[in-house]
Amino acid sequence: MKVLVLGAGVVGTAAAYYLARDGHEVIVIDRHEAAARGTSQSNAGLVSPGDATAWASPAALKTFLRALWNHDLGIKVRLRLDPYFYLWSLRFLRECTVKRLRANTDIKLRLALHSRDCINALSEETGIHYDERKKGIIYFFRSQKSLDTGTDNYRYLAEHGLPIEIVGRGRLVELEPGLAGVKEKIAGGIYSPIDQTGDSKQFTDNLAAYAAEKLGVKFLFGTTVEGLDIEGDRVRAAMTSAGPVVGDAVVISMGPESGLLGRRYGIDLPVYPVKGYTATIPLQDESKGPTMGGADEDRLIGYSRLGNRLRMSSTAEFTGFDRSFKPRDFRTILETGKDLFPGAFDEKKAVFWAGLRPMMPNSVPVIGQAKYRNLYLDTGHGHVGWTMACGSGQFLADVVAGRKPRIDPRGLLYGTIR
């Protein structure tokens, strides 16, 4: 079967790999000049089942409402004349109950744990490397109050299959010597030993090259998807800037643009863009940098060690499809980096980036058949697309093949969107 995958980010490229491995003829279409030039180009670098707690929660509801007028929070809301944002917000607010938080977290954790196994198996099978480190991730808190409050979510994850260790500052520094200089500023944290880190752009670039060379996947870069040619209950072709591309099945994996395309054809796909910011900085003294990934939970900043580079990421900003940024947008990231790892880097050498995460109101990606017999979705992964990409691609391949999925599909398939 000829399958068209719309989008060459980490999610679309992983889907293409698993579909091609199943024997399908796969064509990937993307408007950029190479793979991973959109959302997947830069992120915190964390492959993190430990970050599986859903965003929508009673606490997030309070923060979301405060962000309407306080723009100094980790979540920023810029009010716009965008009716779709208000519709998305209403659906988000409906998810902000303890019951929905737990249900959505269960689904995310199930997929995240499966996906971690998938990326490691894929890496071993293909020989792909991507500045990966498999030392775990530290999630730490600066005050005893935030530690006491924050550990509740991690205890819940532990009860549902995530190995964790609750650590004091002494044990934390033993695990991560890079934080020794700020030991007294940290109350304690959570160590997730199965979490890992890596460069999603490197991974996607290398996987795309492998899929093209070894599995015959064809990539049409510099080609914009303009619409779908639909006849009856089937999609006949993707209409692109280079003309129609005919296929037997189509997968929408276009990141934040997925919702725009889906809505044109009557698909209820509430994906909304949420902007995040990253700074990537070469380490001038590697001994003073981190040795594993981490997250400053009080400042909502994640970081990872990618070879001789430090990657730091922060902010969830609701500002439509605006990808622009200014140097001052990275002030908190750089200040936190200097606070945590003094003398490790020269901030003048930082490379800045901002991109859009494709966020669902319930924080759960949506996968599977949607409305038309041969139209599939693999999108809406939010801030954990890097974590969930391979598991989603493998899950999608099972659905397309009509096989029983290797994990419980409840909550992931399109028909279960609320």
Automatic annotation (TrEMBL):
Binding annotation for FAD: 3-17
Ranges where the FAD dependent oxidoreductase domain occurs: 2-398
GO CC, alphabetical: cytoplasm; plasma membrane
Known cofactor(s): FAD
GO BP annotation list: D-alanine catabolic process
A Pfam family matched in the record: DAO
InterPro entries in UniProt: DadA, FAD-dep_OxRdtase, FAD/NAD-bd_sf
Molecular function terms, GO-annotated: D-amino-acid dehydrogenase activity
Catalytic activity of the protein: a D-alpha-amino acid + A + H2O = a 2-oxocarboxylate + AH2 + NH4(+)
Keyword Cytoplasm included in the entry's annotation: no
Keywords carried by this UniProt record: FAD, Flavoprotein, Oxidoreductase
Top EC group: oxidoreductase
EC number(s) per entry: 1.4.99.-
Function of the protein: Oxidative deamination of D-amino acids.
Similarity annotation: Belongs to the DadA oxidoreductase family.
Protein name: D-amino acid dehydrogenase
Native source organism of the sequence: Mesorhizobium hawassense
Lineage: Bacteria, Pseudomonadati, Pseudomonadota, Alphaproteobacteria, Hyphomicrobiales
Gene it is expressed from: dadA
